């Protein structure tokens, strides 16, 4: 690094380039090397080289900055040293390799809020959007290489001396390899053109510039203000054009940007207007798992709209979504796919299709041994599907009631809301209701009020309120209200015929049948609700639960309750 500093101070371009090349021989992906460059003042030198007029020095500096900017500390140091405004200015350079490196480095640096603000503040969003305009850049290059013929009037053909000029290299780069080693696929996007083989192919260098620009936009789109800036700069139509290419390295950042922006209503309307859903569905059939994940997540964001759900079905997107459920190794992709299925299941026509594709049976199988991100979406999808009788029967026959009820002991509010809706929908069927209440009452009688032996009792506040086991002071877990006060209903204790307490889990199960709208809006039941409000609408269900509790037989013979039970506080 000292050699680079001396060479750059002396103004020797060749020595500086040689020094930069020698730095590339080190393992720049290793954190030790990255921090060593920073500690000896290398970042200041590399950023100063970006302000020179020597293209080779800029390229060498950006190649190193691109590698070391994966380190979070280096990113912040680059922003502190004012590196982002210089990189944004480089985006105006006519040198395409320089623009690629600058955009890719911006993509690495813009991972935190202050960096994204700096890119927008210095006009970087508009410049990045312009880098994705392949059609504009290719058209300009075509006009430069092949000027329009002059109107000759009555004059004869112009005499040309010397050999004819070579053909315009408009298809340069066709068949070449990119840095990632993948084949560059050029798109024939000519409209009303008689010569598609000559004038309609994207230049491979323009494709690479657009890919790097899309990467930078993807990083910047984490910010709401940047999303608006991208939309106002005309980014949606350009991203829609890029979606038509078959180059996967290009598609991943493009779909990733659309996925981030689709959380805003304005973007969802623009996505419908630009007919992007069709291309998202097409890319679900890709072999690239990352591309499948981002396409499914984009559909999940957009499928809140009924028209979008219909478009997904019309373009054949439900079948690939159902087939992707069978691959459970990639949890991120599974969460995106189940989320898309959940939102698409809001439409009854889509639910019918999912039943044809055996997706409901697969969803029931995903109720166990999955992360919460997947479970929230799986249970949400089942809650929508179980609005129909045929699907409720499928869930019951596949053994889905018990794992659904078991999820009621969690503390994830989004998961609890979806579980109550799903169990409430299933509880409309008497058979499903009996199974669910049996499980809850078993849980209630065997776990909720089992008092620990005297030798294991601890001071107040150190006994687990459900199991009665010892809790260390530093590991006491905050529990949801409906479990912490299992002995109390929302209006106080409710005694059953055996002298025990029916408790809150039964109310938690049965209330969604009649209060689904309140639960689906994200509001949990209020413990302070009045008796008349709470019992309104479901006396038959509560009576059925009481009858089950009074029924003799082996169902509850495993652990009879004493006459009076006082839960340990």
Automatic annotation (TrEMBL):
Biased composition (Low complexity): 484-495
Origin: domain of life: Eukaryota
Lineage, uppermost ranks: Eukaryota, Metazoa, Chordata, Craniata, Vertebrata
Protein name: Armadillo repeat-containing protein 4
Entry-linked PANTHER family: ARMADILLO REPEAT-CONTAINING PROTEIN 4 ARMC4, OUTER DYNEIN ARM-DOCKING COMPLEX SUBUNIT 2
Key words of the record: Coiled coil
Coiled coil: 270-297
InterPro entries in the cross-refs: ARM-like (IPR011989), ARM-type_fold (IPR016024), Armadillo (IPR000225)
Ranges for region Disordered: 140-166, 456-498
Claim: Coiled coil is one of the keywords in the record: yes
